[in-house]
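Any chance you could type out some protein's one-letter sequence along with its backbone structure tokens so I can compare the two?
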Amino acid sequence: MWAITRVISRRVHGTSFITIPKLSGFSIVSPKQVEVEYADGTKFNFSSEFLRIHSPAADGKVRSIGGEKVISGRRYVGIMSAEPVGNYGVRTGIYPWDYFYELGSNKFGLMRNYIKTLQKHNLSREPPPSRKR
């Protein structure tokens, strides 16, 4: 387990600043599931799809449709490895620890908005069919 020695204040849900507790655990439960736990007992479980579509790293497959950035076809992505980056975060696309907390605090709304955006643009969470050569 990794411990962060500092406490970070961050705006969550766009309403007010909260104090983000110290990280107390991070684990890849399976290639499809990551668990992040904080010192106050808050625990978040994330699917690899959720983390991929909310990755702070650039994705060559991001489509801009009407000014909206849309990532589709990521239902079956997996996480093979993750490595800590000092007290900052984890490298699977580099997610700062406080970003995990922000994602977890907004998880259901973010996923709902993602699905609505896909539907709006007639896209799917499923990967596109393989091209036959």
Summary: Strands lie at 8-12, 16-20, 23-30, 33-38, 43-47, 63-65, 68-70, 83-85, 89-91, 95-96. Residues 86 and 96 are 10 Å apart (CA to CA). Residues 1-13 have pLDDT under 50 and may be disordered.
